[in-house]
Design a protein that fits this description.
The protein is globular, with a radius of gyration of 17 Å. Helix content is 34%, strand content 17%. The two termini are 14 Å apart. It has 253 residues and is of the alpha/beta class. The protein binds 2-amino-2-deoxy-6-O-phosphono-alpha-D-glucopyranose. The site of 2-amino-2-deoxy-6-O-phosphono-alpha-D-glucopyranose has 14 residues, from loops.
């Protein structure tokens, strides 16, 4: 793993955006894996600033989001579909047919198979998503880092061999995301790319910012790879860059 320590959140966002934009310049047909959460918001803002629709930066790009909650409508204010539209998709020339987010209601599957319940349809949606990723091949995937070490929604204990599937969210993860849901309670399940799915990406960039991430960043640097720490699976990958700001780097050796 390569480590980049930068001054603050703004510098982290600028660097992550530069890495995305230079990758797109080198390969316009780039297949990107994309995260949500608070950490990448600054990166998306920088990318949007540099890549207004008329510049056609995203005209041949394909994107796959890491995860989505189960059971909420795509236009729910806290869905990752809404997040991606407001932070990136509505502002760049990314073809709607090349934006991929797991469907936490498995709508298309249930339309084709009306007798299936949601719980029966979700595994088929996961297989469809995994196959779409395998068909396209991820070039570059950006990740945030949960305070418990999760990547995507792969919570501690999940297998390093896992593929796209439905997972149950831990209490700490639901608490961390509660502010996005206002009065509504945070769903207890999500669809996430698996760890093996994420590791299939040719290149991976992890971002962590702020003192709240200092302890998990230290664990990522210092603990041996184990399924208790999902992000430690990244040690198995040959091309991972971790970008941290000074606050998140405070406990690094
Ligand atoms: C969320 C997302 C992850 C994200 C993580 C960290 O639950 N599913 O993909 O990386 O938690 O979020 P934040 O950047 O808000 O700390």
């Amino acid at each position: 793993m390569k480590w980049e320590v930068v001054e603050d959140y703004d510098a982290l966002s600028v660097l992550a955006a530069q890495l995305m934009l230079s990758a797109l310049a080198l390969k316009p047909q780039m297949v990107l894996g994309l995260p949500t959460g608070r950490t990448p918001e600054g990166m998306y803002a920088q990318v949007v600033r540099a890549c207004h629709k008329e510049y056609h930066c995203f005209s041949s790009v394909t994107t796959f989001n890491l995860d989505e909650y189960v059971g909420i409508l795509p236009d729910h204010p806290a869905s990752y579909g809404t997040y991606m539209r407001s932070r990136l998709f509505d502002h760049v020339d990314l073809d709607p047919s090349r934006r991929n987010i797991p469907d936490g209601l498995a709508t298309a599957i249930r339309r084709d198979h009306p007798r299936l319940t949601l719980d029966e349809a979700l595994p088929l949606e996961c297989t469809r998503y995994e196959q779409a990723i395998a068909g396209a091949g991820l070039d570059l995937t950006f990740l945030g880092l949960g305070t418990n070490g999760h990547i995507g929604f792969n919570e501690p204990g999940g297998s390093f061999e896992s593929r796209t599937r439905v997972v149950r969210l831990s209490e700490s993860t639901r608490k961390a995301n509660a502010s996005f849901f206002g009065e509504d309670s945070v769903p207890d399940r999500a669809i996430t790319m698996g760890i093996a799915t994420i590791l299939s990406s040719k290149q991976i960039i992890v971002m962590a910012s702020g003192t709240k991430k200092a302890s998990i960043v230290r664990r990522l640097e210092q603990e041996p790879a184990s399924e208790d720490l999902p992000a430690s699976s990244l040690r198995r990958h040959p091309d991972v860059t971790v970008i941290v700001d000074n606050a998140a780097a405070a406990e690094l050796s």
